[in-house]
# Entry
Amino acid sequence: MRILVLNSGSSSQKACLYEIGETLPKHPPACLWEGRIEWGGETAAIAVKNLKGIVQKEQVAVASREQAIRHLLSTLVSGEARAIASASDIDVVGHRVVHGGPHFEDPVVITPEVRSAIDSMSEFAPLHIRAELEGMKIVENLRAALLQVAVFDTGFHCQMPLSAAIYPGPYEWFEGGIRRYGFHGINHQYCAQRATQLLGKYQKPLKLVTCHLGNGCSVAAIQGSRSVDTTMGFTPLDGLMMGTRSGSVDPGILTFLMRQGQLNSQEIDKVLNEKSGLLGISGVSSDMRQILAGIKQGHKRAKLAFDIYVHRLRAAIGGMAAVLGGMDALVFTAGVGENSPEVRAEACSSLEFLGLRLDSEMNARPSLDQDISTADSRVRVLVIRAEEDWAIAAECWKLAHAATPVGTRN
# Structure
């Protein structure tokens, strides 16, 4: 079975093609083909690679997102990096959908009714949802009868206890769908499963704290493969300091700025999502690599941005450990989590009271999916490769093999 995964973001588009046999493998296989688009105004940087290692890169002038995505998908069947003979060789297409709202928990086959329900949640995450719906439409135009599946980034967190999910405002908020949904659930769930494999000899159910640290950041508390708390909330703006997002701030700041006439609601949204976080504090970059380079050059605000980032990360890890009543393992994943030994070292440096001890040499040069704690550490520390696309493909495979697909909750 060939499964194409479309991972649509507000500023990028990823795609992967997997081939899965009659048995679902325990570990992610290599992609037959993978592609990425980085949007740049009227141009798009498109890069694709196939299983043979052939790479194709181009800068394309585009009139729309749809045109760029169609161009990306055309490289599946034509050009040096092609991987299949025609679109008819694709059996299923899986889509990452950032927000399932109150309607969706499990992966679901996309029907007109499902698409309409997803569209109704656009107000929760307008840029992401619009991009994801556009991807579904493109695939339908490519081949109308092709099975499409939606996998929801909020789904893993749907069963959080109400004490963690409900905001302490009027109860009517919750009745109207305002609650903590959590995000990055596809990868948090995958990391929990992978950590359980890696730590198979340890007690179960495991108490895990997983740190998804990329341009967007969140921490989750997972007990027995179930999310019991997470830092992101009603939107992906809540929680940790991120690349350009503020994370949690005192809401009184926002009402103060509005009363002073300095910012309206749209301007506040732009400031909190695009001009805050590492970029807002440092004035250098939203990229942790550039922040660390700035620190080496003596840039004080870069150092301040790093210190705030780590302070909030430590506080979140400690809070999740308290929710769990301790932890068996701490997991780092995604771009910063996998590639920044500095962030991992600083985050772990204040956690020795939990019995956590980091092996500095292994932390400096870790292999992915590896334990980087010392032999005598009571808490294991793992670096796990983010595998959102594979997790989506696996859910598509399961759903395609299931007699009765599951999806919308009553």
Residues 164 and 229 are 6 Å apart (CA to CA).
